[in-house]
Amino acid sequence: MANGQQVDITAKGPDGLPGIFWLIKQRDQAAVGAWIDAGGSIETPGFLRATPVLAASMADNWPMVLYLIERGARMDVADRQGFTLAHNATITRVDPNGSLGPALRAVRKKLAQAGLLSRVYTPDQVKAMQAEGRWPPAR
Fold first, then answer.
1. How far apart are CA 34 and CA 115, in angstroms?
2. How many domains does one find in the chain?
């Protein structure tokens, strides 16, 4: 997809979701970049309304999360179940000293700089806030 081939941002992955989610599952950062460069929305909703950055965090793909943040992905997103990027970054079982550690630490630093780690909400709290029209909260 990223090797000079035409990028079809309307194509769906095998799971029926927008193609970017399949590329994230494949951990293909170059193809994700090509998809975005071709005009695909970095905020496109997928399963349970998760955005690509949130989907990558759920898969513990912290290098992809960092890449998407650096490309402009919103960090204050939540899916329909109430999971947020800040919540996922704090509950991950990824070893901060392992191979994914540098990217995880960088994501946590960006979240902290954005004020998103000062109050991490549980999924139930987020769902209640969404139902009340208070998500995302003011910082």
1. 30
2. 1
Q: Is 139 a domain residue?
A: no
Within a domain: 70: yes
**CA-CA distance, 76 to 3, in Å (whole number)?**
32
Indicate the helix (H) or strand (E) that contains 40. none
pTM of the model: 0.93
pLDDT single digits (tens) 3-33: 556 889 999 999 999 999 999 999 999 999 9
The H-assigned helical ranges of the chain are 19-25, 29-37, 52-58, 62-70, 85-91, 101-113, 123-131
Task: Kindly state whether residue 38 falls inside one of the protein's structural domains.
Answer: no
Range of the domain at 110: 43-131
